[in-house]
UniProtKB/TrEMBL annotation:
<feature type="domain" description="HTH merR-type">
    <location>
        <begin position="15"/>
        <end position="83"/>
    </location>
</feature>
<dbReference type="GO" id="GO:0006355">
    <property type="term" value="P:regulation of DNA-templated transcription"/>
</dbReference>
<dbReference type="InterPro" id="IPR009061">
    <property type="entry name" value="DNA-bd_dom_put_sf"/>
</dbReference>
<protein>
    <submittedName>
        <fullName>DNA-binding transcriptional MerR regulator</fullName>
    </submittedName>
</protein>
<keyword id="KW-0238">DNA-binding</keyword>
<dbReference type="InterPro" id="IPR000551">
    <property type="entry name" value="MerR-type_HTH_dom"/>
</dbReference>
<dbReference type="Pfam" id="PF13411">
    <property type="entry name" value="MerR_1"/>
</dbReference>
<dbReference type="GO" id="GO:0003677">
    <property type="term" value="F:DNA binding"/>
</dbReference>
Length: 105
């Protein structure tokens, strides 16, 4: 049974409205919509159809904002973030495989 409070510990729980999310990362709702249009993040929708963002999505959006603030076009910023994420995942897999290989030796 999931307790209500457990949701707030979940990085993927869509706890933040668009306005609050934009305020938290110091940007505009239009910027968040642009990230959605670029398919970097896909916010969940409330029953009323409003966008809701998770903490994980806000971290991604904050990274995109950082890159854009440095002069990177938004499309390029989104691609950079996707590649960073893929690299991080590949490194995790590599480390897991190395650990498994060591334990077999």
């Amino acid at each position: 049974m999931t307790r209500f409070g457990d949701r707030f510990d979940d990085d993927d729980y869509p706890a933040y409205t668009m306005g609050r999310a934009a305020e938290m990362i110091g940007t505009t709702p239009a910027f968040l919509r642009a990230l959605g249009d670029a398919e970097l993040i896909t916010p969940l929708r409330s029953a009323g159809g409003h966008r809701r963002y998770s903490r994980y999505q806000l971290r991604i959006a904050a990274r995109a904002r950082e890159l854009v603030d440095q002069g990177t076009p938004i499309e390029a910023a989104c691609r950079i973030i996707i590649l960073e994420d893929q690299l991080e995942e590949a490194l995790r897999i590599n480390e897991r495989l190395r650990s498994e290989q060591k334990s077999k030796s």
